[in-house]
């Protein structure tokens, strides 16, 4: 893909950003929400049911409702939902501002378990009510701590339609800014008692800078099963894994192909599109979208599912791409019927007839009508197939188009593809010497083409067999693409260095925390070859396999969850590494010592007092703490089913046992999250201070805990208003 195409892919991500980051304010008041070309185009196409076009346009001009999603994989999801319903939604239902009754947030009818909600409240309304201001602060704080995501409703659809299971290998091809990636991670961790699911998510984006947005989203979820990579999605490299001592090609069970698009479904949020929209946008993007989709199905395992989605309503970006993909697949792909997968969702079936219009207003119904002067911009794949029997067999009506006026959402298109067989162009291998079979060549290191994957045309098509015959080119290209050395753009990342089982760093860690024999030492990595290791991270064994076998062909931006950080004073307490809160839920199942079981009242003390004396803890926790020496500890709350008034989910915090005191090392927003779960109201007063009116701070003692001073800047304590 050329530089111009790559830049276009970066620039056309506006629509995806807009729907992923559905916020709470409405700006762009001066922009006139009119575009005659847009109206005439969609009227002529007839995508909107008869008699509904005015409703459709009226909805497009209305601000988009804000939507939130509770992170489903966290064991705290039910507690957050309970908090939302009991502390905020109930009171909001009775609220009036300027004589007008405020509409309470509503659950999205089609999202499982009431985990997604939408509201029409604007910033102006929020500023007029202390209750709504507290609600807003709650949402902001919980979003920062990863327990809630703000995301447009339609953006939540593709991950749901993928039907993720914990063992699935998943590729998100155009992932930034990462809201859907977060959903995928949540689904992998459906069972919180399993620290390392067998599956993983590879989240890719072409834009190096946007990859760091992706990292920020993923890091909120503290998963050891996510890797962020930086590649052009249309030629993302084929990866290898070691399976039973043999080098195999990695095929993905699930692929999310949410491609760059013109974004006309985001008009309600991305108001700039009103001025900029022309039909040329779709014509320019169709080829890129098709190349990305082709690369996706090549890497999909037989039996796997790929969801293709855009936030455009235009058939050139939607059904035309799907139809071209199905036609090229020669039966290897089929559209899945997802009509029963999301009960409550209103959608329009895909169309099997459409026309194409230039920005000058010229219409074309068939490729044969396109003048030669236009044939570089307009391509045959932009039109419906002319063979009516073939068209009917595609079942394009199984595609789903979401119209804004049906359920007060943005516009969206989604299609679910199932792979039935390898893609036909992947079956055309280079000719081999008669005495060399593909299997023996792969085992003996014979012909380079022999060991190529069946679904890796970007490798296979440009490699000659030993017989000197080049295999057939990809049907979308005139000739095989030449092999190119991978160019690394953007920042140079620190290396990912795995520790060995006998690394000296484990000696004190093993004894200090009494790690269980099944602790996967080989999954621990650091980011430096030389010098002292500052932080230790963990990944799943599957991601370790990926990293070790693809270091030369893959640009990794980030992976792993931090589990230990070096404590410069820690060695005098028996271990140079303290526990990190980010990785506590991953690491704790393997820790057998330095655990203090705490009560709800203990947690309140630990999260609201800076350095409480050990005696501030209740008797049971106090007795456990006295038996431990100074250093890093786990503070563990185990729910009591017989007391439903208390949180019914496990809570694990990192702490430090000082000489006479104890403290929790928990980031500010997580601290507030846990306090709210325990029934303590935390909010910012008008001066911006964190305020809470029930608990006393107690008397502190300067530096009683003997932990390094730098830790103190990372925590924030509740103050009396």
Q: What does this protein look like?
A:
This protein is an alpha+beta fold. The protein contains 23 helices and 31 strands. The strands form eight sheets. Strands 7, 8, 9, 12, 13, 14, 15, 18, 19 and 23 form a ten-stranded mixed sheet that branches. A five-stranded antiparallel sheet has the order 20-21-22-24-25. It has a four-stranded antiparallel sheet with strand order 4-5-1-6. The protein is globular and about 85 Å long. Mean pLDDT is 83; it is low at 23-28, 428-486 and 686-721. Residues 1-25, 429-455, 691-710 are annotated as: Disordered. This is tRNA (cytosine(34)-C(5))-methyltransferase. Residues 56-420 form the SAM-dependent MTase RsmB/NOP-type domain.
Which sheet architecture does the biggest sheet show?
10 strands, mixed
Radius of gyration: 28 Å
Per DSSP E runs of 2 or more residues, the count of β-strands stands at 31
Number of helices: 23
User: Which percent bin holds the helix content?
Assistant: 25-40%
The oligomerization state is single chain
The percentage of residues in β strands lies in 15-25%
Overall pLDDT level: 83
Runs in which pLDDT lies below 50 for 5 or more consecutive residues are 23-28, 428-486, 686-721
End-to-end span in angstroms?
58 Å
Computed structural class? alpha+beta
Family: Belongs to the class I-like SAM-binding methyltransferase superfamily. RsmB/NOP family.
Domain SAM-dependent MTase RsmB/NOP-type: 56-420
GO molecular function, one term: tRNA (cytidine-5-)-methyltransferase activity
Region (Disordered): 1-25, 429-455, 691-710
